[in-house]
Amino acid sequence: MTSHGGPPIRVLFVCTGNSARSIMAEALLRIRGGDAFEVFSAGTDPKGVHPLTVRVLTEAGIDASDARSKSVTEYLGQPFDYVVTVCDQARQTCPVFPGVHDSLHWGYEDPAAAEGSDEERLVVFRRVFREIGERINRFVPLARRYHDAGSPAPAALG
């Protein structure tokens, strides 16, 4: 049981490399969702956690020491309430997850593909981190409300 009285809401964030966006989303939802959520991330072609992802998380006061890239195959067959793709490429190659309550797509620019100096690339990482954080802030109360009521999630979560 969680502090909200029910089982945790299981969420899997998926992107291609599991190096930036899905790692950020996992870290943010862990912090902002608390024990109401059980959160994971994975990639369709994991590349390792990008150093600028670690830097952005650390700047935000989030411990990134346990962050690691994982393959979606680690989670096949596990039940999730939400599987959220955070890039178009992952949406096209994301495996079917049985028992998924809802599949959502939150499209974000791939900061790992940003060009320029480290400082210019860091600006892109920070912006994507901020955008994901804003989406997580909207997602948490809505997901809790619909999960607690046993209702299907509205399109507003996607």
Features:
four-stranded parallel β-sheet, alpha/beta, globular, Rossmann fold, 4 helices, 158 residues
Output the number of helix runs.
4
Q: Tell me the CATH superfamily.
A: Response regulator
- Spans with pLDDT under 50 lasting ≥5 residues? none
Largest sheet: 4 strands, parallel
Q: CATH class, anyone?
A: Alpha Beta
Give the DSSP E fraction (strand runs of 2 or more residues): 5-15%
Structural class: alpha/beta
For the record, the CATH architecture stands as 3-Layer(aba) Sandwich
Task: Sketch the topology as an H/E string, one letter per element.
Answer: EHEHEHEH
Overall pLDDT:
88
Strand order of the largest sheet: 2-1-3-4
Topology (elements, then pairings):
Elements: E1 9-15, H1 21-33, E2 37-43, H2 51-59, E3 82-85, H3 88-93, E4 102-105, H4 118-149
Parallel strand pairs: 1-2, 1-3, 3-4
Helix pairs in contact: 1-4, 2-4
Question: How would you concisely characterize the structure shown here?
Answer:
The protein is α/β, with parallel strands linked by helices and 158 residues long. The chain has helices at 21-33, 51-59, 88-93, 118-149; strands spanning 9-15, 37-43, 82-85, 102-105. Helix 1 (21-33) packs across helix 4 (118-149) and helix 2 packs across helix 4 (118-149).
